[in-house]
Amino acid sequence: MLVLDPAASWDSIVLKKRNWQTILILYLLPLWLIAFAAEFYGLVHWGKPRGFVSELKTLSNSTALIFEILQLILMAVLAFVGAKLIKALGETFHGRNTFNQTFTVVAYGLGPVYTMRIFDAFSGAAGWVYWATWGVGIVLTFAILYLGIPKVMLPDPPHAFGLYMTSCVFLLMVSGLIRFLTFTFLQGKFGKLDSLIETIIAHMPILQSFNQHHF
């Protein structure tokens, strides 16, 4: 509804006054876990183009699990770092916002970016589709934040657009960097990280047995 009717949706969010812990558990965590499950299935069953010849390869259950756990950590970093950055930005525009306010803006604003990760499950998502899904998500994020920042953070009218633009640029940069890192790993260009994951799996029997399960 933030995409279809952003004004009414933001009004409802403001009235509920949820703290950041509630938003994390009831809104963000379900989105992250749905994307986690979708991409895990795709990595194990359909694979991704990996290596210099971009040969389509599937990942073992354990490797896909570790990768998705790392993705969860990066998604949390994006939300919390984004909230901290926008809080700092608000102060440069003479705002006095709480962490709850900025986390609310970032969490709901990044909803499309997190949701579009579901499409990463498909095998072609390691190429241009992988970047296209992020691109669609970040554009929708910009659209949602256009009303979200004024309604939640209540900046002075002369500073509202400047705060909006700088916030969008920061989220674009941070989310783009995370996307680049995950894309590079899926392309098989982090050889040392691949070796580290294989070492972890070799020394953890529970992960070895996890490879024998069928999902």
Which features would summarize this protein structure in a list?
2 strands; two-stranded antiparallel sheet; mainly alpha; 3% strand; 215 residues; 9 helices; elongated
Written description of the protein model:
- The chain has 215 residues and is mostly helical.
- It has one domain.
- 74% of the residues lie in helices and 3% in strands.
- Strands 1-2 form a two-stranded antiparallel ribbon.
- A hairpin with a 4-residue loop joins strand 1 and strand 2.
- The two termini are 32 Å apart.
- The model has no long low-confidence stretch (mean pLDDT 88).
Topology at a glance:
Layout: H1 6-16, H2 20-45, E1 48-50, E2 55-57, H3 61-92, H4 99-109, H5 111-116, H6 128-153, H7 157-186, H8 191-202, H9 205-210
Antiparallel strand pairs: 1-2
Helix pairs in contact: 1-6, 2-3, 2-4, 3-4, 3-7, 4-6, 6-7
The percentage helix is over 70%
**Alpha-carbon distance between the termini?**
32 Å
Order of helices and strands: HHEEHHHHHHH
How would you characterize the largest beta sheet? 2 strands, antiparallel
Which percent range describes the beta-strand content? under 5%
The largest beta-sheet arranges its strands as: 1-2
Over all CA atoms, what is the radius of gyration? 19 Å
Q: Kindly report the average pLDDT value.
A: 88
Given helix and strand content, the structural type is mainly alpha
Using the alpha-carbon principal axes, give the shape. elongated
The helix tally amounts to: 9
> How many extended strands?
2
What number of domains?
Answer: 1
Low-confidence stretches: none
